């Protein structure tokens, strides 16, 4: 059962995690943040919105690219996990997660980063993996409960 205090704590956890994701996605130099703990935001008042729809200029076979995109999926897997703390419906978890993915990618365009609709897709894969595992876990546990009565 959800209590008001529990809800507030879970919501605060989600907000902190969303803030962390925002900082990771919008900092000018991710390596400076990770290695030296330097957070730099550089505002771009005239972003290139056309780059958001670029699906071809990426090193798809590069191990570094693949690792980065797996990180996208993992971060949004955890975002969906934290949303499930607060929202009971998986459809709500999905919608909020994908909306935040879209928001962070568009925001990157304004912070001298490359925002991409393709990255929204990678983020969405992480959300779908979470929802799939959650449903499979629920079905598996339900079947175990049914089998214990026979």
TrEMBL record:
Query: Looking at the Swiss-Prot or TrEMBL record, what is one Pfam family this protein matches?
Result: VanZ
- Which chain regions cross the lipid bilayer? 12-34, 70-86, 93-111, 117-136
Q: Where is the VanZ-like domain?
A: 15-136
**Keywords associated with the record:** Membrane, Transmembrane, Transmembrane helix
Q: Which residues form a coiled coil?
A: none
Q: Which InterPro entries match?
A: VanZ-like
Q: Which NCBIfam families match?
A: vanZ_1
From the Swiss-Prot or TrEMBL record, give the protein name.
VanZ family protein
What organism is the protein native to? Rossellomorea aquimaris
